[in-house]
């Protein structure tokens, strides 16, 4: 490794973020959409149609095999393509661009706030239903705002900061490993009859990969918002949330925004109790823009820190090289 290699990843990240800012997600031919179709095809051919008819151990083994079969070849291919001189850097820029979802996330959230500001509650319910899995048909305006903000905060961790973390740590193979594992978790990581056992490996692998990035995201929200409240909410409320990684992210984000999130929500027609996160008033439509701004400031901070870290490592390498 030469000292210039330390700056390569941060510069690639910067260029990918710029592409995402101006272009957003491609409307057609997104690689993750193709991967999702491949995963659905593989599941169909690995399982019986009677999802409750196979032993749990068999379904878990099949799920683990599916995760391995889908992810490992992609990791190896990305490593080979990234190693190609010159073209490897271009490949990595496009890879990180496809993996990030900052602009797309902001656009989807803004459609919710725009509909609420226009007093079109039905449209706001429909729009927020595109980014959350809960039932939206009976939501009131505050519920819609809350759902949108929670989605922004959680997806900020999953779709942005965790992807960046694994790219900076392991390069192209790292971001491919993370983004594909996250996609499989989104497809299979449910506690339903169909996926309770088959999706176990995908869910646990995603939890493992997200453990440290989620806490770095919580720290990012804390530093860029109401620091005292965010820190208090993180350390007192996160442990009560049903997800070990979403808990710190959501609690710190709610505190940073000085809002109350969480509370009951309806999934598949069934009301689910969720602990209260954060502190302060109920969310309003204008708070959606505040959540988007918090994530964008966090993204800017991570890019700046990556560039600064790259330059420091470059200087250290140069000093050692000439010593």
Molecular structure report:
With 323 residues, the protein is mostly helical. It has one domain. Helices cover 72% and strands 4% of the residues. It contains eleven helices and four strands, in the order H-H-H-H-H-H-H-H-H-H-E-E-E-E-H. A two-stranded antiparallel sheet has the order 1-4. Strands 2-3 form a two-stranded antiparallel sheet. Strand 2 and strand 3 (270-272) form a beta hairpin. The protein is globular, with a radius of gyration of 21 Å.
In round numbers, the mean pLDDT is 92
Percent of residues in helices comes to over 70%
Strand order of the largest sheet: 1-4
Which structural class do the helices and strands define? mainly alpha
Give Rg in angstroms: 21 Å
Low-confidence blocks of residues: none
Number of strands: 4
Q: What is the CA-CA span between the terminal residues? A: 17 Å
Oligomerization state: single chain
Total individual domains: 1
Provide the succession of SSEs.
HHHHHHHHHHEEEEH
Biggest sheet overview = 2 strands, antiparallel
Total helical elements: 11
Strand residues, percent:
under 5%
Overall 3D geometry? globular
């Amino acid at each position: 490794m030469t000292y210039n290699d330390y700056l390569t990843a941060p510069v690639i990240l910067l260029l990918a973020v710029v592409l995402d800012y101006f272009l957003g997600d491609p409307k057609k031919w997104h690689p993750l959409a193709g991967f999702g179709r491949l995963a659905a095809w593989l599941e169909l051919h690995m399982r019986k149609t009677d999802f409750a008819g196979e032993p749990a151990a068999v379904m878990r083994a099949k799920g683990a095999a599916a995760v391995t079969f889908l992810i490992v070849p992609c990791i190896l291919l990305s490593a080979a393509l990234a190693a190609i001189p010159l073209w490897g850097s271009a490949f990595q820029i496009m890879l990180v661009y496809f993996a990030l979802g900052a602009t797309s996330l902001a656009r989807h959230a803004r459609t919710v706030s725009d509909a609420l500001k226009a007093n079109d509650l039905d449209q706001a319910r429909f729009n927020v239903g595109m980014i959350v899995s809960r039932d939206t048909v009976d939501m009131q305006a505050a519920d819609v705002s809350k759902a949108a903000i929670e989605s922004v905060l959680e997806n900020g961790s999953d779709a942005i900061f965790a992807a960046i973390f694994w790219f900076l740590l392991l390069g192209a193979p790292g971001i491919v490993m993370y983004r594909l594992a996250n996609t499989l978790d989104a497809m299979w990581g449910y506690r339903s009859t169909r996926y309770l056992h088959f999706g176990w490996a995908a869910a646990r692998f995603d939890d493992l990969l997200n453990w440290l990035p989620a806490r770095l995201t919580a720290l990012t929200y804390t530093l860029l918002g109401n620091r005292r409240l965010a820190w208090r909410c993180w350390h007192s409320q996160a442990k009560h949330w049903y997800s070990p990684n979403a808990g710190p992210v959501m609690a710190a984000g709610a505190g940073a925004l000085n809002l109350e999130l969480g509370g009951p929500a309806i999934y598949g027609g069934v009301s689910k109790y969720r602990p209260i996160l954060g502190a302060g008033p109920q969310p309003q439509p204008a708070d959606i823009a505040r959540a988007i701004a918090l994530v964008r400031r966090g993204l800017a901070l991570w890019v700046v820190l990556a560039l600064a870290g790259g330059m420091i490592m470059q200087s250290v390498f140069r000093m050692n090289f000439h010593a």
